[in-house]
Amino acid sequence: MRNASTGWGPVNIVVPVYNVADLLSRCVDSLLAQTYEDVRIVLVDDGSTDDCPAICDRYAEQDPRVTSLHRTNGGLSAARNTGIDHVFSIEEPSRGRYIAFVDSDDWVEPGYVESMLETLEASGADAAQCGHFISYAPDNEDDKDPAHTRTTLDRAQAVESLCRNGLWDVTAWNKLYRLDLFRQIRYPEGLLYEDTATTYLITQECDRVAADMTPQYHYAQRYTSIANGTTWKDSKLDLVLAGDRMAAWVCEHYPDLKTAAAEKRAYVRLSTLSQMVNTGHHDKDLARRLRREVLSVAPTVLCDRRASKRDKLGILALLPGFWCYRAIWSRYYEAKRNRTVAGSAGTPDTTGKEQS
Q: Fewest 10 Å CB contacts: which of 132, 178, 197, 305?
């Protein structure tokens, strides 16, 4: 066990909570079992209508490391922002120097916090990232990076990785940040894909970032969530909006990364087209527009040796028409669901989850 005597001080962990009563204890118990014991767990109940408010309060009564906050429903970004604001309201030095975010339907390994603190200390970075399991069921998980890569990236390398959905990714929940990075930054409320909209701005505040991809986080992948579900909502187009804003920002601040920005523009559209297939959403005008926009950057992406094979294959599948992309993706998606959904039935729906 490690504690404040290491000099790291308290580590803040913000957990937005919404209607996950059956899963919340698994999450909180895993945080209380950290090998680094000096954690402050900020549970932010986002207007839950199930037993989550009472569960949050019960944990706060039982363990002084847990704080329970309640707010009207505003979505994941609003709940995270409430947690951030609460942390900054604490006087120094009790406030601590670090912050992490954990989704309430996920859970972590005992070394989640300590491993990233050690990564920060060894690299001198401002933010650290751990590896994660994609969990379809407790006994059905994929290691996102079986090589368990360790690396340190400067600011420009990290921004390029975000554009290309590389090792340093957009997700918030697999990272430990220096708290000061959030003095001027908050998550965009009322917008899905909040990590895509925010992580590049946080990365810009870092001199360097570091990753040790040994898995410490279990990301619950479900086909009932907003981000991966079977019902189309126009809010899924928020991904295109967030991706385009990021790409425009990259082109302005990093002209040498214009080709990487083009890949981001292609990726967010290919992902949205895939969501249209997954949900059975038929909108010829939207599909036509997204296809046209992908093809406008296709020469850049296809000629870019650093672009991912996944995005290149998506573009090639789209060349004959959306009908071809739909046929190929629907077969892939159905095969993936058949392989992974076994054992995960009955899991409750939650707010949208973002994964790169």
A: 305
